[in-house]
Amino acid sequence: MSQQIFPKWANTLPIIVLIVLVITLGLVVHLFWYWLSPKHLNVGYQPKQPIPFSHALHVENVGLDCRYCHSNVEKAAHSNIPATETCMNCHKQIKTDSPHIKKLTKHYENNEPIEWVKVHMLPDYVYFNHAAHTTAGVSCVQCHGQVNKMDVVYQAKPLSMGWCLECHREPEKFIWPKEKITDLNWRPTNQINLGLQLKETYNVNPGEACSVCHR
Amino acid sequence: MDIINEEIQRVPQVLGKKSFKKVTDIIAKPSESPAPKWWVIGLLGSMSLAALLFSLIGYLIWDGVGVWGLNNPVGWGFAIVNFVFWVGIGHAGTLISAILFLFRQKWRTSINRFAEAMTIFAVICAGIFPGIHVGRIWAAYYLFPIPNSMAMWPNFKSALLWDVFAVSTYFTVSLLFWYVGLIPDLATFRDRATTKVKRFTYGLFALGWNGSNRHWMNYEKAYLILAAIATPLVLSVHSIVSFDFATSNLPGWHTTIFPPYFVAGAVFSGFAMVLTLLIIARKIFKLEDLITIRHLENMNKFILATGTMVGYAYAMEFFMAWYSANQYEAFAFINRAFGPYAWAYWIMVSCNVISPQFFWFKKLRTNIPIMFVISIFVNIGMWFERFVITVTSLHRDFLPSSWDYYIPTWVDIMTFVGSFGLFFTLFLLFLKYLPIISISEVKGVMEIADPHYYDHHTEDKQ
Predict the structure, then answer these.
(1) pLDDT class for B337, splitting at 50, 70, 90?
(2) Chain A residues inside the 8 Å CB shell of B207
(3) Which residues of B302-326 are buried (b: 16+ CB within 10 A; e: fewer)?
(4) What confidence tens digit (pLDDT) does each residue in B7-46 have?
(5) Which residue from A3, A5, A161 is facing B149, i.e. has the nearest CB?
(6) How much is the ipTM here?
(7) Lower CB count within 10 Å: N or C terminus of chain B?
(8) Does a structural domain hold residue B232?
């Protein structure tokens, strides 16, 4: 038949189409689920800060508690970046010859804030309250990673909605005693038992409704 | 006596003494002759309206749903009305092609291709509206269960989601059904093609059909299976569309009669639309012998039956409003018939309930100008039915201080007009390039196809 335009291999087309379809579907899912997710796009974000402040040095070697600088974390929705004055409590005396500390002192004397670069960003349509989380026994390490080991702070966790919900659905897998939340090296021996017990004690009852976070 | 004889003798499906070749010639003619003037003008007009539709969609996305006339109590307006209108129209195609096929109604063969094409184009138009009415269109993929980092998952308890799946299933099945039916005819077009491009294009879609026994066997099986799959869809799709309303708690929407009432209405509106288009196409392409007056009469009977069912549903809603003794329900219906939107309600009643009643008379239901006018009335009435259901139930809600009157903006109206542009663009392309009557099926129901035909018609033997 002269009209036939399909060569013999065209018989395998249905199988090829099926395979391509399955692969395409898989790729679409992969695209949304991993490639476009903060897990891929945001984790590891490590901006250069105006002054190379090392959390590792200040926490591990000096022994500062997180709350010495981020003093509002248990009291307010917003956890503060410390004022330059807080730095100057020590650095009026310590390492005053360092060029970085000189820069710090200049800011202090001119009464100009240091423009720290924000690392952990949430969308504007999410309401997040630091105090509500720290008083429920959510350790700093759960969201920020082991900042005590970071010379330059980077985003360690995806901070995606799905990631938030992991804990909102099963808080017992994550919460610690309040007095341990700033001890970033501490680990419980039996998280589930501890978590269930703390859930009772602290009356932890995180919602899952839209308006819990999107108000 | 006349009527009885007619029924007993079985009216032939194709009038006039025609050979198989003659039938193929008639149906293939539009695709083989140069485009007529009316077609070119019609296509240009439709395409500019379709362009208007897409530019207004662009405007909507750019500016937000504020360009529509929606207000505080009336959160659902033209978008939903048009969606239900277009989906409803599709139902006649599926009923004709699937249900009448399973019931071995041979008269369907000369109108099923046409009606199915209308179904597909109507569902395309319908699909646009829920897609654009979501406001933040870039979040429309939330409707589909795609694993994502937000742990967002569709709400499977929502009728609106069932709708997404009902309509997309409907479109897929209708398209497959239509396409499978087209294959033998596409092969006919391929074999008759005079140019290389035509031969390749038709040949590509004919999938190498060569009319062998085995091809026919597979084809018949596939067609039967698809008919069986499509049959429940005739009932399910519009039932689910009605759930969009019925599963809410709003008086005027929260009614158990909605699913059957919507299905009847859908078939009603669909038949009216098929009739409107068919009367014109039949005249233009001189298909009077293939689409006989009997076909049109049968469709009018459907319109009469379903129109009366719809009328029954209107009455029953009022009865239930009274019988339930629920004052909110009663208010919703009194407001419908005598409130600020009474004009829309009575347009609906006169078009949908009163106008088809003329079809009780054989003289009227076999009169082409009259059936054309009535089919137009039904199209208008069925659009107003959806308007009445959507808008009048919403505009006076439980709090009188928030009552408002919904007025569509020019964007609303022109988007709806533009959807007709899209519909007719697709339809005109179909009329020109595809067999608008199923060639192979019509041949099967011709008198000449009877193996014993020549036993009685010896004079025809050549």
Answers:
(1) very high
(2) 6
(3) bbbbbbbbbbebbeebeebbeeeee
(4) 555 667 777 777 888 888 888 888 888 889 999 999 999 9
(5) A161
(6) 0.72
(7) C
(8) yes
